[in-house]
Design a protein that fits this description.
- This protein has a single domain, classed as NAD(P)-binding Rossmann-like Domain (Rossmann fold, 3-Layer(aba) Sandwich).
- Helix content is about 45%, strand content about 15%.
- The protein contains 8 helices and 6 strands, in the order H-E-H-E-E-H-E-H-E-H-H-E-H-H.
Length: about 230
């Protein structure tokens, strides 16, 4: 599969790459000889010996995102692919009719927390990567992790579902803008909308068993000749 995918030496940033689906994707890509960067707030690069470049990054902070990109450029000289995987969810009722002051009812703190990571993070990372693609004058790919709930909604996840719907619309809009106003650059943007995955406390190896189709989709999109 390595020869077909031709991922050798491609520089691929995976945000949120320390846990869950994100880690499974980062590990898979690294195993296919790509230069993988895991950009996450939960990282301890001193204890990592897995062939992946681990960088601290708060995707909701422009300063942190810009610093992460500069570290990647300093080390590899380019970026080929950005995979926006960093995301959060907080199950809460839209309205809890059982009482007036419910800890289970969605509030503005939850809204800001979820949208800062899920939407603002995608915006900041995508913008930084697109600017780098243009500067490099090479093809680039941005893959945004959305969710089935962004298209269909999800009970108890109204804010999360809204954030993922925003990611879908953002992806369509930003790539249309680049195509229309930035000529002669082949920058591709896509979203992936997996269904809900419940991690029951098992190991990451157990989680990976549930996401191979998503990972293969990512790999196919990255490898396509366009």
């Amino acid at each position: 599969m390595q020869n077909w995918l031709q991922l050798e030496n491609k520089v691929i940033i995976v945000t949120g790459g320390e846990t869950g689906i994100e880690k499974a994707i980062a590990d898979k890509l690294s195993g296919l000889s790509a230069n993988v960067i895991s950009a996450d707030i939960h990282t301890d690069s001193a204890n990592k010996q897995d062939g992946i470049y681990h960088i601290y990054c708060d995707v909701s902070s422009k300063e942190s995102v810009d610093a992460m990109v500069q570290k990647v450029i300093a080390r590899y000289g380019k970026i080929d692919v950005l995979i926006n995987n960093a995301g959060v969810a907080k199950p809460q009722l839209f309205v809890d009719a059982s009482c007036n002051d419910s800890e289970y009812e969605a509030d503005t703190d939850s809204f800001d927390f979820i949208f800062n990571i899920n939407v603002k993070g995608v915006f900041l990372c995508s913008q930084a990567a697109a600017k780098q693609f243009i500067k490099q004058k090479i093809k680039g790919t941005i893959i945004n992790m959305s969710s089935e709930s962004g298209m269909e909604g999800s009970a108890g996840q109204s804010i999360y579902a809204a954030s993922k719907n925003a990611v879908n619309s953002f992806t369509r809009a930003d790539i249309t803008t680049i195509d229309r106003y930035v000529k002669n650059y082949n920058i591709k943007g896509v979203t992936c909308n997996p269904t809900i995955i419940i991690k029951d406390g098992g190991s990451i190896q157990e989680l990976v068993k549930h996401v191979p189709k998503d990972i293969e989709l990512y790999l196919q999109v990255i490898a396509q000749d366009y």
